[in-house]
Design brief:
The chain is of the alpha/beta class. The protein has two domains: 199 residues, Alanine racemase (TIM Barrel), CATH 3.20.20.10; 97 residues, Beta Barrel (Lyase, Ornithine Decarboxylase, Chain A, domain 1), CATH 2.40.37.10. It is built from eleven helices and 20 strands. The strands form five sheets. Strands 1, 2, 12, 15, 18, 19 and 20 form a seven-stranded mixed sheet that branches. A hairpin with a 5-residue loop joins strand 13 and strand 14. Helix 1 crosses helix 3. 45% of the residues are buried. The mean pLDDT is 95. The structure holds pyridoxal-5'-phosphate. Pyridoxal-5'-phosphate binds next to helix 9.
């Protein structure tokens, strides 16, 4: 048996997620330029879509972002600690009953989504700034038009709504929501208005109003089928932890769902579904060695995944060699599509086990 036939193992080597904060900032600047003269906020809920709000939010604040959105009160409290007193922080879900004092203590601006929430806020602090969300056709959060007219006295500084179908510019729901929003915002003539998230920004200037609220596009999810300025921000790499040769007919992985069609060289990588690598990429996804795609064979395991490495010389694929699961050759959208999901879910499921590295601009 020559060296080329031997099975080799490297016991060490965690997967590594690299987040390019310079690219996040560049994406925010490009979106701000596209939306101007509207202001461009940043949505950093769910730990900045899994990338790390503790690094992403201060980088955006340093670049000049003054307005942030998160979903939950606890996210807002943590963000206020991180950013200090300057930026405005909106809580998309508004206060749960009894949480109003936390909003005042941390200068969080509630997004009021129903009459009950609005009445509770008015009873607590009618003079403090508040946002109201109106439902213009998504039926998720926000006041139905009939409830919007009957609110108590509030200091409303922002009225917002959310688009259901902005990922399809041809969908007539976009224009219908735009018309409904134009009518409803008249209820608060002194408030600023906000309708567009990432995809809405690319529907055209009439969707921009005073403030746009991108999340996804900051993180490299491409919000249009047309030309765009969005840069990839993530690189997810995992090291080879073992290489082997198998004969024709060998069964690969749990359930032996893949069989080697001929003598095959395999590499096992140190990343699995516990790290957020979707199990649905089993027998479908790939890992990249530079520009070369090595197909994932067999089922993805909790801590490891096997690729067919027959196409590359063993010498360049020793234990320890890093391969890209997400990176220059396979962006978030492409990997998500192969996995049967969307970039949003892929990002927010990135695990907490691998090492993280942040590149400054
Ligand atoms: C999450 C969210 C956003 C950001 O949406 P993206 O598609 O990620 O840009 C904006 N507004 C509301 C109300 C949201 O829930």
């Amino acid at each position: 048996m020559g060296a080329l036939q031997r099975t080799e193992t490297a016991g060490t080597g965690a997967a590594m997620l690299t987040v390019d904060l310079g690219a996040v900032v560049a994406n925010w600047r490009a979106l701000a330029a596209r939306a101007a003269p509207a202001e461009c906020a940043a949505v950093v809920k769910a730990d900045a879509y899994g990338l790390g709000a503790a690094e992403v939010a201060p980088a955006l604040a340093r670049a000049g972002c003054r307005t942030f959105f998160v979903a939950l009160t606890g996210e807002g409290v943590a963000l206020r600690r991180l950013l200090g007193g300057g930026p405005e922080i909106f809580i998309l879900h508004g206060p749960a009953p009894g949480e109003e004092p936390m909003f005042a203590a941390h200068a969080l601006v509630p997004v009021l989504n129903c009459a009950a929430q609005a009445h509770a806020w008015a009873a607590y602090a009618a003079e403090l700034p508040a946002a109201v969300q109106v439902d213009t056709g998504m039926a998720r959060l926000g006041l139905p038009p009939a409830e919007a007219a009957g609110l108590p006295h509030l200091h409303v500084t922002l009225v917002l709504s959310h688009l259901a179908c902005a990922d399809d510019p041809a969908d007539p729901a976009n224009a219908a929501q735009l018309a409904a929003f134009r009518a409803l915002r008249q209820l608060w003539p002194d408030a600023r208005a906000s309708l567009a998230a990432s995809f809405g920004i690319f529907l055209g200037p009439e969707y921009h109003f005073d403030l746009v609220r991108p999340g996804a596009a900051l993180y490299g999810i491409v919000p249009t089928a047309g030309p765009h300025p969005i840069r990839g921000v993530l690189r997810l790499r995992a090291p080879v932890i073992q290489t082997r040769r198998v004969p024709a007919g060998a069964g690969i992985g749990y359930g032996q769902t893949w069989r080697a069609p001929g003598p095959t060289r395999l590499a096992t990588l140190g990343i699995g579904y516990a790290d957020g690598l979707p199990r649905s990429l089993s027998n479908r996804g790939g890992a990249w060695l530079g520009e070369r795609r090595l197909p994932i064979v067999g089922r993805i395991s909790m801590d490891s995944v096997i690729v067919d490495a027959s196409a590359v010389p063993q010498a360049v694929l020793a234990p320890g060699t890093p391969l890209d699961l997400i990176g220059p050759m396979a962006g978030v959208d492409a990997v998500a599509e192969a996995a049967g999901t969307v970039g949003y879910e892929l990002l927010t499921r990135l695990g907490g086990r691998f090492a993280r590295r942040y590149l400054d601009g």
